[in-house]
UniProtKB/TrEMBL annotation:
Keywords: Antiport, Ion transport, Membrane, Potassium, Potassium transport, Transmembrane, Transmembrane helix, Transport. Its main location: membrane. This is Cation/H+ exchanger domain-containing protein. It comes from Vigna mungo. InterPro entries: Cation/H_exchanger_TM (IPR006153), CHX17_2nd (IPR057291), CHX17_C (IPR057290), CPA2_transporter (IPR050794), Na+/solute_symporter_sf (IPR038770), TMEM14 (IPR005349), TMEM14_sf (IPR044890).
C-alpha cells in the first residue's frame, strides 16, 4: 500500500488447480494458464509463418507480428480476452519464462560468432561494417534529439542517444543468415561480405549496448557507470581465461561418433545461467553473460553440434515466441497518433534505411563492388529483427524509452526487415548460368576431361561413392577426371545460423574458421582419396530447402560444366537387406533433377559397393554388368561402362538383349504416380537403330583390341517377360549394374513406385533381385529436356542497353511458354500471343519502324522456336548477341535493304510458326515437322487468326488470393451499404468488383501493368475500409484489413520490381 493513493496489487497465483469439477477456474492458476498461453502463442505464430512463407520472409517476422497482434494493438484491445488469457498477474511468470529462453538464445547467437574469423575479416568487410554502424549512429543522434523533443520528453539525454543510435545501426546476424540462406546467397560474394560485416556489426552493437545500459542507471554518482564497465571487463577476462579452458576440455573429451556425456551438457547450461546471474549483479543485464559464454564456446567437434541440437528446438520453437508475445503486450501501435507522431515514425524509418543503405552502398562502391551487389549489401545490412527487439525491450525496461517511442522503433524494425527479402530479390540476382559448354554426356571424345557432380546426403554415402569414383577413373584414357563432391544439406526451420555458416565453409566462406581439427570425416575422406589417386576432388556444399534443392543441383552442374550428376537413391539398405526410405521429398528431388538437368544424370542405388570403406586402386576388383536394350540411355550406360573397363581392376560384361525375328516386346512401365506418367512416353525404336549399331561396333572393336580380358559381351535371346527377368536375375553375382533409365523397348510392365528408375532399374532395385549388387540408373542428356529456367535465363548483355531490352522481352516469352499449361485469349492489337504445350504460336506484329517482332512456337518436346524480325539494320548488334550467347540454338541470319531476320531454332527440329510482315500482319500458318499447326496470328486490324484457342491461362496462387480478398471486401461493402446506407461501403464494393474483373481478365497476360493497377486499388481499399472501421470504433477489424492490405501491397511491390528486373 502506498501513501496518499491506494494501489491494489494482484494476489500471487497458485501453481495448479484442483480441476473444473471442484468449481475452480484453471485460468486462475499459473500452470494451466501458462500452458494455454504457450499453446495459443505457438499455434498463432506458426499460422502466421505459414501465411508469410510465399513471401519468403524469415519466421521472426511472423513471430513479431503475432506478438503485436495478440497485444493491445489488435486482439488485446478486447479487454475480456486480455484479462482472460493474459491477465496482469500472469505477466511476471510469462516474462520470466521468456527471458530464460532468451538467455539460451543469446548463448546460441554468441556461439554463431567466430572471434578468430572476425579478427581475420578483410578490409572490405571491415570497412563496410564500420561505415554501416557509424553513419546510422550519427543520423540516430539527430533523430533522437527530435524524438526527445516531441514524443519522449523528459528522457535522459545521453542514454537515449546511445539507445536510439544502437537501434538504428544494429544488424541482426541470425536473421540475416536466415534471409541469405532462403535467397541462396549464403555462399555468394554478397553473402560472404554481408555475413562478415554483420558479425563485426553485431559485436560492436553489443559493446555499445553495454555502454548504454551502464550509463542509464538511476544512481546520481558518476562513478557507478565506470565501475560497471570495469567489472564487465573483468568478467570478460575471467570467462576467456577460466571458463573457456573448461569448455575446450569438455569438447576435446567428446570424440566424433561417440555420444556426448550428459554431465557436459548440464555443466555448460549451468555456466550459462551462472554467468547471466553475474552480469545481472554487475548491472549490464543478464543477457551479456550468456552471450559472452557463447562466444568462447568451441566451434568445432561434436560437442558444439550436440549442444546446439539439444537446446535449439526448445528455445526457438517454444521460448522465443513467448518473448515476442511478451514484447507485443508492451507494444501499443495505437499510441502512434496525431500527425507529429506519424511524422516521427517516418523520420525514424527514413534515417534507419538511409543511413544503413546509403552508407553501406557508398563504401561498397569505393571498394569496387558492382553497383547491384553494393545496393543489395545495403539492404541486407539494414536487417533488424530479433536483436533490435531485445535492445528496445531493454531500453523500455530501463525507462529510457516510453511507450510511444518504443512502438515507433518496433514498427521501424518490422518494416526494415520486411522489405529486405523482396528488394534484394529485385535488385540482385547472382549469375547462375555459366558459359555454354559442349560435353554434357559421358558419350563424348575420350581425350577430354570428364567432370562429375557427385551428390551425397551423409557419411553413409561416402565409402561407396568414393569406390564408384575410383571405378570411373579410366586410367587408360588421356582425359582426366574431376569430381565435385557435393554435400546436400536441408535448410529446415530448425537450422541455426551457426549450422548454416559452418556447413557453408566448404564453399570457401571466409567468415568461418578454416582450421581443420581432424574431425570433419567427409572432407578428410575426399582429401585422402585425392592424395592417393590422380583424381581432382573438390568438396562443395549445397544448402537449400528440399522443395528447391534441385535448382541448386542443376545450376551447380551447369556452372561446373558437369557431364553427369550422380544422385543417391532415396532409399538406403538396412542390415537385413531391406530398403528404408529417407522420405518422399528426396524422391521428388531426384525426379525434378531428371526433368530439368542440363547434363546426364545417374541415380546410384547403393548396396555396399566395395564394402564399408573406400579401397585403393591396387585393391579394386569389381565385376560390372551393362544390360543393353538400345536407346539413348542405354548408350550412355554402355559408354560409362567402357570408361570403367579401362581401369585394370574392372571387368565389364555387356548383356545385349535380342529378340527373334518378328517378335517385339511391349513398351512401357505402369507407374503409380500420374504426375510422372508423361516421362514414360513411347520411344520410336527405329530412330535409335543406327546409333545403337554404331556404338556397338565401337564396343566390339574395343573388345578385340584390348590386351586383357577386361571386357566381354553376351547376347541373350529373349521371347517373353519371364526370359528377361531370368536373365536379369543371373546378374546378381556382380558388384555393379549400369542400366539405362528408359530403353526404347522396356520389357517389364509391372507397377513401380520409383518411376525415376525406369522399368529395368525399378526391377533391379527391388528386394526381389539382390541384396549385394549396387545399381546405377543412367539418363543421358537430351537436348529436348526442359532445362530449369535458372540455368537458361541469364541473357543480360552489360554493353548494350537495347540488347538488354530484347533479352528481357525474350526471357519473358520463354518463361511464359515454359510455365503456361493453358492459354490466354488475346484481345487487342500488339498484345502478346498465347502459348500452349501442344500447339505453335502465330506471328506477332508490332507496328513502327524500330521495334522488333517475335514469333515463337512449341512442339511436343517443349522446346521454343524463336523467330525475331528486326525493322532496321540498327539492331544488328543484337544479332551478334543472340548468336554469341545461344550457341545451342541454330541461327540463320538473312538481311536485305528493308528488314533483317534472325531465326533461332533447334538443329533437329523445324517447327517455326507463322511470322509477321513489316506491317504487323500475322499469317498464323502451321509449323512444319512435329510441332503441330501454328496458332492463328493477328491481322493488321487486331483480329484473331483462325487457329486461335479460347482457353484461358490458369491463375497463379497470388492472383487467386487477390480474387478472394477482393470478393471478401466487396461482399462486406455491399452488406454495409444495405445495412446502413454507407456510401463508402458501396465505394469499397465497387472498387473490389473492378479489381475482380481486372485481375481475372488482364493479370495473366499483362502482369506488370495489372499489378500496378491492383496496387492502386488495394491502396484505395485500405483507405476506405480503414476510415470506415476507425469511425465506427472497430479497431480490430480496421487492423486486420490494414494488415491484409499491407501484405498484398508488399506482394504487388515485389512482383513489380521482380518483373522489371
Amino acid at each position: 500500500m502506498g501513501t496518499g493513493n491506494n494501489i491494489s496489487c494482484p494476489a500471487p497465483m497458485k501453481a495448479t488447480s484442483n480441476g473444473g469439477f471442484q468449481h475452480e477456474n484453471p485460468l486462475d492458476y499459473a500452470l494451466p494458464l501458462l500452458i494455454l498461453q504457450i499453446c495459443l502463442v505457438v499455434t498463432f505464430t506458426r499460422f502466421l509463418a505459414f501465411l508469410f512463407r510465399p513471401l519468403r520472409q524469415p519466421r521472426v517476422i511472423a513471430e513479431i507480428i503475432g506478438g503485436i497482434l495478440l497485444g493491445p494493438s489488435a486482439i488485446g484491445r478486447n479487454e475480456k480476452f486480455l484479462n482472460a488469457v493474459f491477465p496482469a498477474k500472469s505477466i511476471t511468470v510469462l516474462d520470466t519464462l521468456a527471458n530464460i529462453g532468451l538467455l539460451f538464445f543469446l548463448f546460441l547467437v554468441g556461439h554463431e560468432l567466430d572471434m578468430r574469423a572476425i579478427r581475420r575479416t578483410g578490409h572490405k568487410a571491415l570497412g563496410i561494417a564500420l561505415c554501416g554502424i557509424t553513419v546510422p549512429f550519427v543520423l540516430g543522434i539527430g533523430t533522437s534529439i527530435a524524438l526527445r523533443a516531441t514524443v519522449s520528453k523528459g528522457a535522459e539525454l545521453f542514454p537515449f542517444l546511445v539507445f536510439m543510435g544502437v537501434a538504428l545501426s544494429i544488424t541482426a546476424f541470425p536473421v540475416l543468415a536466415r534471409i541469405l540462406a532462403e535467397l541462396k546467397l549464403l555462399t555468394t560474394d554478397v553473402g560472404r561480405i554481408a555475413m562478415s560485416a554483420a558479425a563485426v556489426n553485431d559485436v560492436a552493437a553489443w559493446i555499445l549496448l553495454a555502454l548504454a545500459i551502464a550509463l542509464s542507471g538511476s544512481d546520481a554518482s558518476p562513478f557507478v557507470p565506470l565501475w560497471v564497465l570495469l567489472c564487465g571487463a573483468v568478467f570478460v577476462i575471467f570467462v576467456v581465461f577460466a571458463i573457456r579452458p573448461l569448455l575446450v576440455a569438455m569438447a576435446n573429451r567428446s570424440l566424433e561418433g561417440e555420444p556426448v556425456k550428459e554431465v557436459y551438457i548440464c555443466i555448460t547450461l549451468t555456466l550459462v545461467l551462472a554467468c547471466s546471474f553475474v552480469t545481472d549483479t554487475i548491472g549490464i543485464h543478464s543477457l551479456f553473460g550468456a552471450f559472452v559464454v557463447g562466444t568462447v564456446m568451441p566451434k568445432e567437434g561434436s560437442f558444439a553440434g550436440v549442444l546446439t541440437e539439444r537446446i535449439e528446438d526448445l528455445v526457438s520453437g517454444l521460448f522465443m515466441p513467448l518473448y515476442f508475445v511478451s514484447s507485443g503486450l508492451k507494444t501499443d501501435v495505437a499510441t502512434i497518433k496525431g500527425g507529429l507522431s506519424w511524422a516521427m515514425l517516418m523520420l525514424v524509418i527514413f534515417n534507419a534505411c538511409f543511413g544503413k543503405i546509403i552508407g553501406t552502398t557508398v563504401v561498397s562502391l569505393l571498394f569496387k563492388v558492382p553497383s547491384r551487389e553494393a545496393l543489395a549489401l545495403g539492404f541486407l545490412m539494414n536487417t533488424k529483427g530479433l536483436v533490435e527487439l531485445i535492445v528496445l525491450n531493454i531500453g523500455r525496461d530501463l525507462k529510457v524509452l516510453n511507450d510511444q517511442a518504443f512502438a515507433i522503433c518496433v514498427v521501424m524494425a518490422l518494416f526494415t526487415t520486411f522489405i529486405t527479402t523482396p528488394i534484394v530479390m529485385a535488385v540482385y540476382k547472382p549469375a547462375r548460368r555459366g558459359a555454354p559448354y559442349k560435353h554434357k554426356t559421358i558419350q563424348r571424345d575420350p581425350d577430354t576431361e570428364l567432370r562429375l557432380l557427385a551428390c551425397f546426403h551423409s557419411t553413409r554415402n561416402i565409402p561407396s561413392l568414393i569406390n564408384l569414383i575410383e571405378c570411373s577413373r579410366g586410367t587408360g584414357r588421356k582425359g582426366k577426371l574431376c569430381i565435385y563432391a557435393t554435400h546436400l544439406m536441408e535448410l529446415s526451420e530448425r537450422s541455426s545460423a551457426i549450422t548454416m555458416v559452418h556447413k557453408a565453409h566448404k564453399n570457401g566462406m571466409p567468415f568461418c574458421n578454416k582450421k581443420r581439427d581432424g574431425k570433419d570425416q567427409m572432407i578428410i575422406a575426399f582429401q585422402a582419396y585425392e592424395k592417393l589417386s590422380s583424381v581432382s576432388v573438390r568438396p562443395m556444399t549445397v544448402i537449400s530447402g528440399l522443395n528447391s534443392i534441385h535448382e541448386d543441383i542443376c545450376t551447380t552442374a551447369h556452372r561446373k560444366r558437369a557431364a553427369m550428376i550422380i544422385l543417391p537413391f532415396h532409399k538406403h539398405q538396412r542390415v537385413d537387406g531391406s530398403m528404408e526410405s529417407l522420405g518422399h521429398s528426396f524422391q521428388e528431388m531426384n525426379q525434378l533433377v531428371l526433368c530439368h538437368a542440363p547434363c546426364s544424370v545417374g541415380i546410384f542405388v547403393d548396396r555396399g559397393l566395395g564394402g564399408t570403406s573406400q579401397v585403393q586402386a591396387s585393391d579394386v576388383y569389381y565385376k560390372i554388368v551393362v544390360p543393353f536394350f538400345g536407346g539413348r540411355d542405354d548408350r550412355e550406360a554402355l559408354c560409362y561402362g567402357m570408361r570403367m573397363a579401362e581401369h585394370p581392376g574392372i571387368f565389364l560384361t555387356v548383356l545385349k538383349f535380342v529378340t527373334p525375328p518378328g517378335t517385339s516386346l511391349a513398351f512401357g512401365v505402369e507407374v503409380s504416380s500420374k504426375k510422372y506418367r508423361k516421362t514414360m512416353d513411347v520411344v520410336d525404336v527405329n530412330d535409335y537403330d543406327d546409333k545403337d549399331d554404331q556404338l556397338w561396333s565401337e564396343f566390339l572393336s574395343a573388345c578385340n583390341n584390348t590386351t586383357q580380358e577386361t571386357m566381354k559381351y553376351e547376347q541373350k535371346l529373349v521371347e517373353s517377360k519371364g526370359d528377361i527377368e531370368t536373365a536379369l536375375k543371373e546378374m546378381h553375382r556382380c558388384n555393379l549394374i549400369l542400366v539405362g533409365r528408359m530403353p526404347p523397348v522396356a520389357p517389364l510392365g509391372s507397377k513401380s513406385d520409383c518411376p525415376e528408375l525406369g522399368p529395368v532399374g525399378s526391377f533391379l532395385a527391388s528386394s526381389d533381385f539382390s541384396t549385394v549388387t549396387s545399381v546405377m540408373v543412367i539418363q543421358q542428356y537430351n537436348p529436348s529436356t526442359d532445362v530449369h529456367p535458372l540455368v537458361m535465363e541469364e541473357f543480360d548483355s552489360p554493353d548494350m542497353a537495347w540488347d538488354g531490352l530484347w533479352a528481357w522481352a525474350l526471357r519473358r516469352w520463354i518463361n511464359i511458354g515454359a510455365k503456361s499449361k493453358t492459354e490466354t485469349k488475346s484481345k487487342s492489337k500488339g498484345r502478346r500471343r498465347s502459348m500452349a504445350e501442344s500447339v505453335g504460336v502465330g506471328g506477332l506484329g508490332v507496328t513502327g519502324s524500330t521495334l522488333p517482332s517475335f514469333s515463337l512456337t512449341r512442339s511436343h518436346t517443349s522446346i521454343p522456336n524463336i523467330s525475331i524480325f528486326f525493322r532496321s539494320q540498327s539492331h544488328s548488334p543484337a544479332f551478334r548477341y543472340f548468336t554469341r550467347y545461344n550457341p545451342h540454338l541454330h541461327a540463320a541470319v538473312t538481311s536485305d535493304s528493308k528488314a533483317t531476320s534472325l531465326d533461332l531454332t533447334q538443329p533437329d527440329f523445324d517447327h517455326t510458326g507463322g511470322g509477321s510482315d513489316a506491317n504487323g500482319n500475322g499469317n498464323g500458318s502451321g509449323g512444319g515437322g512435329g510441332g503441330g499447326g501454328g496458332e492463328g496470328g493477328d491481322n493488321s486490324k487486331g483480329e484473331e487468326g483462325s487457329g486461335s484457342d479460347k482457353k484461358k491461362m490458369a491463375l497463379l496462387m497470388s492472383q487467386k488470393f487477390t480474387l478472394a480478398y477482393a470478393a471478401l471486401v466487396g461482399v462486406g461493402g455491399v452488406m454495409g451499404f444495405l445495412k446502413s446506407g454507407s456510401q463508402k461501403s458501396l465505394l469499397a464494393g465497387g472498387l473490389s468488383a473492378s479489381l475482380l474483373y481486372y485481375v481475372y481478365t488482364e493479370l495473366p497476360g499483362r502482369p506488370v501493368f495489372a499489378s500496378s493497377v491492383g496496387l492502386g486499388i488495394s491502396a484505395a481499399l485500405l483507405g476506405v475500409m480503414g476510415s470506415r472501421f476507425k469511425k465506427s470504433g472497430k479497431v480490430f477489424p480496421a487492423g486486420v484489413v490494414s494488415l491484409v492490405s499491407l501484405i498484398m501491397t508488399g506482394g504487388y511491390l515485389h512482383g513489380i520490381m521482380r518483373s522489371a528486373h
